[in-house]
Structures are given as structure tokens and as C-alpha cells.
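An instance follows:
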Amino acid sequence: MASARAAYLAGFAATSNLRAGHDYQVPTSGTSAHAFTLVHDSERHAFSSQLATLGPGTTLLVDTYDVERAVRTAVELAGPDLGAVRIDSGDLPVVARQVRSLLDELGATRTRIILTGDLDEYSIAALAALPVDGYGVGTSLVTGSGAPTAALVYKLVARALEPGPEAGLRPVAKRSVGKPGRGGRKWALRRRDDRGTAHAEVVSTEPPEASPADRLLLQPLVRAGEIVGREPLAAARERHQHSLSELPLHARQLSRGYPAIPTVFVPDGEFAE
């Protein structure tokens, strides 16, 4: 909230933080998330829902699946008075030019283009010559220059087929170029050899077949709205030290850009040695 206030003071046009808008009277603006699109039966249904609620002046997110198809659908549903489209992934200079050309071709000459996606002052300067009307900035703005950040992004991976806690889940995933997702609920284990040394983290969409040496990684944190995953500080410290002790010696080398051990994604829940 403090960052949203400071950003507006320094010249930003609006914030997506509604609490900052309420408490500090900062203008609010934003778009939907990819999860909003994924939770609908189709992109068309998602766009229709947003337009029915917010009107044609809203900003539609068009890169969950296929950008060209999404832009055509957006203009078809909203008409030429569509407020804006947002692009969050892919080769932004190329995609922005393609989208501007397509919007003009479809008669939506006043529809604006908003770019987002790990932008900072340098990337925005490099994009200045594009037919773009605005930018959304998050991590680089809120954390400040030189501060380390964890590149974590919320991804919707499944949605219920019907109401109720026992309903089956349908996998969903973003498929746009540059930021594809992997749909479905996930399981994870640490693959270890007979001496207890870890050599891979295995992620699967089905419960994995663990050997006696392997260690399952998922632990319950919340059940029925109640927190069940708390532990004393001493216990958390001991668990951390135990996890480190499983890593091979080369994993303790100080080298930039390489994982300690590989992560292996296995769609069918099986892991080949």
C-alpha cells in the first residue's frame, strides 16, 4: 500500500491495489488475471462475463491462449469501442505491433494496448517506440532497485467440475508463448539414493510411486480453513538443516544460475532412472 501511494505521488497514473485506492484516494485501474480466464469454460465466456460486468470500456487480457484469436474475440464481443487489451507475455515488441495492426484492421482504432510482465524503467524505455498506450509495473517498482526478489507467480492449475468439496478437478493451463503453464494438481517428492543423497525433485500430476529412500515433499498447511502447518522455530530450523544435509556436495558450490539438483516434471506420475 505504501508503494502504491509513493508511486502515484511520483507520477504513476493508477494502482491495482484497491485498499490503497480506498485509504489514500489513489485512482484504481487494472485488468483480469489469467486465472479468471482459466476458470471459465472458454476465453469467450470469460470475456463475456467481464464485459457484462464492467462494460466495453474494460481492459481484456488477451494472451492466455492465442493472442490473435483472443483479440478477434474481444472485438467481436465488445465492438470497436473496446477500452483496451493487455499483453503479458511473448516477444512484446513483435506482439504489440501485430496487435495494433489487427485492432486497426478490425475497426478498433481507439482500443488501447497495455503491456505488463516484469517491466522496469529500462524495458519500458526500450519499448517506447511501440504503438503502446500504457504499462503495468509491479515487482521492480515495489521491491526497489537492487533488492532481491522471488519470481513467484500465482497460477490456476485446475477448477472444479461441479459445486462441492468432493467434486472432480479439470486441469487448466495458460498456453501463451513464453509463459506456458502445466495444468492439473501436483504431487512432489525428493528422489534419493540408498545413502540418502538427493539427486532430483520430482513433480507429477498423479501420486508418485515412492521408493523407500524417497521423501514426499507435500505437507498439509490448512484443512477446512484451519491452519495445521505451524511448527516451532527450532523444529523449522532442524527441518531445514536436514533438507540441506540430503544435497550432494556439488550442490553446495556457490555458482549463479544453476539449481542445486534438477526438477523433473513427470506428467504420468512415473519417474525413469
Q: What stands out?
A: The chain has nine helices and twelve strands.
